[in-house]
């Protein structure tokens, strides 16, 4: 939503101020629009393999949606982890084996659809709970493995943002290419009257204008939003890591989820009282 609002402000600022002392019709050079868009798409296709192209296109719809990683989601996550760890502390690690092996049939995970429907998050949780149940790895080994997996995930989800940022850097150059093509056309028409040449030169310069406007006004904001989405989507794995490692180190479930709560950004972090009240309210449900 804010992306559209930003686009409206950008267009109003650029075109509105120009319209005060010029004619907007002078900016309408359809072939230059087509050339710049074509060059941009061509550069995108040529510079990335099919896997990157698919992931980038697939990530684009997320920029129009609000963040799903909010305080309520993290309260659900911490409550679910607390319930799992409380069961482990009371009945032993083997008591969660069925939950881990069949998460979609688990009565615990089923209470938290916002978490259980996220395939990657559930896979991360169940994989490390499975290692804990197996008992073959110590906390340090699991922590190192978690760090590698989180880093890999972070790198993967950051790719669309990096790709769009590179596209934003390239578009001004494409605008210059289009402008130079226009200048070449002008040089071939030097015998025309000054009004005609002036119009042709103005049309050529529109390419430079479009390249810069599209780059910094339209493509760069998309790159920034994709990077922000990737950053906020990685925080949940850090929370899970801290909670599970705290439990492996011998801390009580209440203390382990408190460690996880402290990892959260202040805007998404429930207070100690809010989390405690939520855990008490959900206990026994």
Mind explaining what this structure looks like?
By secondary structure, the chain is mainly alpha-helical. The chain has one domain (29-285). The chain has helices at residues 2-21, 30-46, 50-59, 71-91, 97-101, 113-116, 119-134, 139-187, 194-248, 253-263, 272-282. Helix 7 runs parallel beside helix 9 (194-248). The longest helix is centred in the C-terminal third of the chain and has 55 residues, at 194-248. This is Flagellar motor stator protein MotA. Its main location: membrane. One of its GO terms (biological process) is bacterial-type flagellum-dependent swarming motility.
Which helices and strands appear, and what pairs or packs with what?
Elements: H1 2-21, H2 30-46, H3 50-59, H4 71-91, H5 97-101, H6 113-116, H7 119-134, H8 139-187, H9 194-248, H10 253-263, H11 272-282
- Number of separate structural domains: 1
Number of helices: 11
Strand-and-helix sequence, N→C? HHHHHHHHHHH
What would you call the shape? elongated
Question: In whole angstroms, how far apart are the ends?
Answer: 37 Å
Q: What's the quick description here?
A:
This protein is mainly α.
Which key features would you list for this structure?
single chain; MotA_N; 0% strand; 285 residues; elongated; mainly alpha; 11 helices
